């Protein structure tokens, strides 16, 4: 979703909705970035932070050029009121990016099992359900849907806050190389047996601009930071190397995490 911010002119306003300390690292210089959450972030965050209820946002109508709901809609108790507020505070012709987990996937089940629900109060089971909800309550036009693949980054020891749960022993206590192999195997299994074990959810593009030219899914998703990259981009970034067993590995261009390259995987 970072390319959306690249398209914005200096002074444009961006809302990171339900973000905690931020659902992405930062925005390019010159943008006015506002992070909104009901709970104050434990650490500092880039941009301005507003502590408020997403169902009753303290912003003027049409205040934002771009709204990002990056893995947050599944958490809002008053979902319909929140979606209506999104429609109110987005500028006419503005862009809306939403990413949510598919509640039927293995990844979301593991997440909820590890986190005793993980705060996911809105289980979405199809992309049509999300598109229909937003279109009905805001009138904002749907432009594109991208299927998201899992990285299991919440199981990565680099992302543990405090003492890890005992359940993490099932995942080699969050060892990054184990997760790289495990996620690769899930994709291989899916391709071999036409299952959906490596699927995570969907991202949606709504509004007057910003829809990608191609909504082809990125199967290479970093097991540390969750950033998705096309194979062509990783080739260009130059970080792909031969690894043990005929695999190829790469270091994530965003965070340096170790990953195994997945190639030739169709939908
Ligand atoms: Zn990464």
H/E element sequence:
HEEEEHEHHEHEEEHEEE
State the helical fraction.
10-25%
**What is the CA-atom radius of gyration, in angstroms?**
18 Å
CATH topology annotation: Rossmann fold
The total beta strand count reads 12
Mean pLDDT over the full residue set: 90
Which cofactors or ions or other ligands sit in this model? zinc ion
Q: Give the tally of structural domains.
A: 1
- The global form is globular
User: Gap between N and C termini, in Å?
Assistant: 21 Å
Q: Which residue ranges are poorly predicted, with pLDDT under 50 across at least 5 consecutive positions?
A: none
- What share of residues are in beta strands? 15-25%
Q: What is the correct CATH architecture? A: 3-Layer(aba) Sandwich
CATH superfamily, called what?
Vaccinia Virus protein VP39
Number of helices: 6
Which structural class do you get from the secondary structure elements? alpha/beta
In short:
It is built from six helices and twelve strands.
Characterise the protein shown here.
β10 (240-242) and β11 form a beta hairpin. 23% of the residues lie in helices and 24% in strands. The chain has 6 helices and 12 strands. The protein has one domain: Rossmann fold, CATH 3.40.50. It has helices at residues 2-6, 79-89, 106-114, 127-138, 176-193, 231-237; strands at residues 13-17, 32-37, 48-51, 64-70, 90-101, 142-149, 199-207, 220-221, 228-229, 240-242, 248-251, 258-260. α2 packs across α4. It has 267 residues and is an alpha/beta fold. A 7-stranded mixed β-sheet has the order 3-2-1-4-5-7-6. The relative contact order is 0.12. Residues 222, 224-225, 227, 252, 254-255, 257 line the site of zinc ion. The site of zinc ion has 8 residues, from loops.
